[in-house]
Amino acid sequence: MWELKGERRAVGLALLLLLLSAAAQARAPRRYTPNWKSLDSRPLPKWFDEAKFGVFVHWGVFSVPAWGSEWFWWHWQGERIPAYENFMKENYPPGFSYADFGPQFTARFFQPDQWAELFQAAGAKYVVLTTKHHEGFTNWPSPVSWNWNSKDVGPHRDLVGELGAAVRKRNLRYGLYHSLMEWFHPLYLLDKKNGFKTQYFVIAKTMPELYDLVNSYKPDLIWSDGEWECPDTYWNSTAFLAWLYNDSPVKDQVVVNDRWGQNCSCHHGGYYNCQDKYRPHSLPNHKWEMCTSVDKASWGYRRDMTLSTIAKENEIIEELVQTVSLGGNYLLNIGPTKDGLIVPIFQERLLAVGKWLQVNGEAIYASKPWRVQSEKNMTVVWYTSKDSAVYATFLNWPENGIINLKSPQTTSATKIRMLGIEEYLSWGQDPQEGVLISLPPLPPTALPVEFAWTLKLTNVK
Predict the structure, then answer these.
(1) pLDDT tens, 3-15?
(2) What CA–CA distance (Å, rounded) separates 198 from 255?
(3) How many helices and strands (H and E) does the chain possess?
(4) Which residues lie across from 376 on neighbouring strands?
(5) In terms of pTM, does the model score above 0.85?
């Protein structure tokens, strides 16, 4: 009898230990392994999907020549495009090198708090700054930059750190753009010559930079780029991302895109960019982001831009509405001058978005795609949803003041109003036309916004 009791005690103790072990494992954070199957299973931090709108900033030594595009160095001395060669001959002395532009990147009038205030007024929830473009110049004092950085040359300031502090004071999320490659770095060219069978550049430059950026600035987002010439195995991308998700100081909130090697875009990563200005025609099954620029012809500031290449206010807002309706985020780029100024046309466009979002942000922030994303009748309508409400944003005002929505199914308790106007609108149901809504009989100047008006429908099926 005593032995039986002892056996029961042993079994009970073993069960208790198993239960404690299971509980400990349940509490332990999940560990991700350095392969895409594991990394792609990581849930996307909630903040990114709720943010919906961010501002992209392309700024670097390319802002000094400020001509053509931010790819100036490559077009000049890589592809040797005649227009760029002629520009240099006509404007700079013989023997002038790209490195000679560095001291002229002064950022003399850069006031990070003013930038952050502008981005906040634009309604942005996150800001992404270029820490290093393909030219290799780093906007922070990178210890592996060979002194080609904003602390040793030009501004003599930590631009990444200063903007980050200003942005975070306003409770905006901070993202860092980083190019994996550099066009003319000797170690990268050596690896290229070796058919990317060696990794001198990755080990000495790319990976130390990424770890330094994460540990020094604790970004909420890493916007990777410059990946296209090599596979992810060359870049050691999966090893870095496993560390980022498991052990980094931002492991719980950090978000990354999909540019981590050849064939990664639109296939692997936290969310998908796919390609610049990517815009799907139907609802994707994975979180995505459209990145685009106010200046349609360039991401960096250029002195030769004309009004014809500047996106109009209604074009930007239409893209924002369409992107969010299809489940994406909208990242809108501006390029500051070499002095650190954001020119008035860029300010104007950003503030126009902010003004529109002040009225219609309820239909954008933290919204979800509805069962129907869009319809086209007399005008184009884009739908979003939040909680029990459905939002219908229409792009053109109907001449007769009546808009019909075919997709919502009304009930006796349905109520409809326009965002920015408190009074409920009168409506009726037509078997053929759907919901017929009488819009407010107001002159254009009295409407809450100039274009893209949003109807809020409650108690619809």
Answers:
(1) 545 566 655 655 6
(2) 29
(3) 14, 15
(4) 380
(5) yes
